[in-house]
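S.,

As promised, the zinc ion run. Input:
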Amino acid sequence: MSPNIAALWHRLPTDLNTLVSDCIHGGCQSVHGPDTGYVFFRADDVAVPGKQFSRMMELFATCGVPLSLAVVPAALTRPRWQYLNGFERTNPGRWCWHQHGWRHVNHETEGKKQEFGATRTPAALQRDLVQGKMRLERIMGERFYPVFTPPWNRCSRRTLELLKELGYAAVSRSRGSKTALPGGLPDYYVNVDLHTRKEKRPAEGWKNLFAELTQAFTSRHCGIMIHHRMMNAAAFDFLEILLKTLADNPKLKLVHFKDMAESAVIL
Ligand SMILES: [Zn+2]
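Predicted complex:
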């Protein structure tokens, strides 16, 4: 087995269409009242063109589903941007291009990996945030939207305060992040992880993934994290089923970060 592909993507359940459909409908039915559930997809580690990136973009375009793309600023060049920006050009509102760290490197010497952790000085954090934002603004122009996805989904309290001070619209971490947010900075957190799963056995991976999806639909906030470079053919098959099933459900609103910020979704 490839170390980069999670166990569940080596064995798809045979009745996958039914499982996905039942999971989504079951979650939606448990929501009372007229409120709509929000669903967004966040693709991480974007910068380098490749077959998996292209396939992901074509899938979202075909299914008509918005996508938030977390771009590593130091890895983005103008030629790469020309390529990345070449999908569904007539409908640029499909995509929300935002910032994923600066260089996506770990600065911690112990504990969990972080690029914007508490061991770094405020000046270093600010420098890396600002140069990342400026680089993306310079290359992407108006396509850039100021939301920050910290590498490994975590960052220090000082980083969150800087995001607020620097005018970012939101941060996107994972569900249950402990570091408290400053007032006025929303967290468009992800609560479903498709590709960086650690389960050793496929059955365990599927059980946990469907539990995450059910929790997410029941809570009316479903943020799904994608790592396209860790996707095999089975992972693309699943994503296609998921996108088509979601797009067919009138109780769900498919959005990206700019949609969420502009509609003042309270999370
Ligand atoms: Zn990342």
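The radius of gyration is 18 Å. The mean pLDDT is 94.

- D.
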